[in-house]
Design a protein that fits this description.
Blueprint lengths: L14 E5 L3 E8 L13 E9 L1 H13 L4 E9 L2 H13 L6 E4 L5 E7 L5 E5 L10 H5 L2 H6 L4 E5 L5 H13 L3 E4 L6 H5 L9 E5 H7 L9 H15 L4 E5 L5 E5 L2 E5 L12 H14 L4 H15 L12 H10 L6 H6 L3
Parallel strand pairs: 1-4, 1-8, 2-6, 4-5, 8-9, 9-10, 10-11
Antiparallel strand pairs: 2-3, 6-7, 11-12, 12-13
Helix pairs in contact: 1-9, 7-8, 9-10, 10-11
């Protein structure tokens, strides 16, 4: 993958340190497009697709987009098994610093089971008792030297599939060492998040519409999306008035709140192969844009391009994305792309 045409030497940011899930999984294509019932048995097919977990997906894209001069340091844990060995090898191949990815012999590598409907929508189920479950505050403290080394020059990324306490510790380190702090949370975590102080240590939150609805106790299926977006943003801002907010909703696109201005962008009109991982790809595009010095609205445009390119691959990491692909998508986008982005995508 060709990195973006970014002079990292001129960027404020030199590193991203993140914690979250590291692992793999399988895809199962369901027969029939009606929603799977609680007690229903459904036949289908196991697909030949590679699934990856959140920290790996975002770290891969950020490193690929920003290139050799930008350092990406994941903090996590894998099992001493074939899946863990393969995932770690792929992380090393793309150039991630894996010194803080530990191996836990008593636990398996995180595994996700993704189910898909015929229209390529779907969800996933993830194991709770994996090696990721042992990531804790001490795991973050082990990387203190990296925070010290990059004081004022870093981004922290706190994403699901490791315990919330570990992510809180990472965000606190980000605060202590003046990093830009980014995070996402699952729907089931939202109640805990809204009743804690964790958002006080976040600069940018990136979630999907269902996660936004859970934050304010609304039903996604029975509530207008804009009502969820507006009320969720208000609720977040009551906790942290400076919080930047990104909410995605599949084909409906994304909403960004920066200051008091909400920006909406539609998704790209592409032949969808697999939507799994698209939100993580979008998030990585936003982070890469921030490193490149783009505004948040421009970063949303870049995130839309990366997220769009991701759905054209059967795998949750599209290793074929490069400047050529993003540049062609930008030319066909159903909205105006900033000249700053075209400059980044120059071949």
């Amino acid at each position: 993958m060709k990195s973006l045409n970014i002079a990292i030497s001129k960027s404020k940011y030199k590193v991203m340190i993140g914690t979250g899930g590291i692992g793999s999984g399988k895809f199962f294509l369901l027969n029939g497009d009606h929603t799977l019932g609680r007690e229903e048995s459904r036949s289908g097919y196991i697909l030949d697709r590679n699934d990856y977990c959140k920290l790996h997906i975002i770290s891969h894209y950020v490193k690929s987009l920003l290139g050799e001069e930008f350092t990406v340091v994941p903090i996590g844990s894998i099992g001493n098994d074939d899946i863990g060995i393969k995932v770690l090898q792929e992380m090393n191949e793309i150039g991630l610093i894996t010194s803080y990815v530990t191996t836990e012999p008593s636990k398996p590598t995180l595994f996700s089971f993704c189910f898909l409907y015929p229209d390529n929508s779907g969800g996933n189920m993830t194991t709770d008792d994996s090696a990721c479950s042992i990531v804790n505050e001490f795991s973050i403290t082990n990387a203190k030297a990296e925070f010290i080394n990059f004081t004022d020059k870093g981004i922290v990324l706190a994403v699901p599939e490791v315990p919330l306490k570990a992510r809180e510790a990472l965000l606190k380190f980000g605060t202590d060492y003046n990093f830009f702090r980014t995070a996402s949370f699952t729907s089931e975590e939202m109640n805990s998040v809204m009743n804690s102080t964790i958002l006080e240590n976040v600069d940018l939150i990136s979630i999907n519409l269902d996660e936004a609805a859970h934050a304010i106790n609304l039903d996604t299926d029975k509530t207008d999306p804009m009502k969820i977006v507006n009320e969720c943003m208000l609720a977040f801002r009551r906790i942290n008035q400076n919080l930047k907010i990104s909410i995605t909703h599949g084909k409906s696109g994304s909403w960004i709140l920066d200051s008091s201005d909400i920006s909406h962008l539609p998704s790209l009109d592409l032949e969808v192969v697999n939507t799994a991982g698209a939100g993580d790809a979008f998030f990585s595009g936003i982070i890469s844009g921030i490193v490149a010095g783009l505004s948040l609205k421009e970063s949303q445009q870049l995130g839309t391009l990366v997220g769009g390119a991701s759905v054209t691959s059967p795998h949750t990491i599209n290793k074929n994305i490069d400047r050529n692909i993003l540049n062609e998508l930008a030319k066909k986008a159903p909205f105006t792309i900033s000249s700053n982005i075209f400059n980044l995508l120059e071949v």
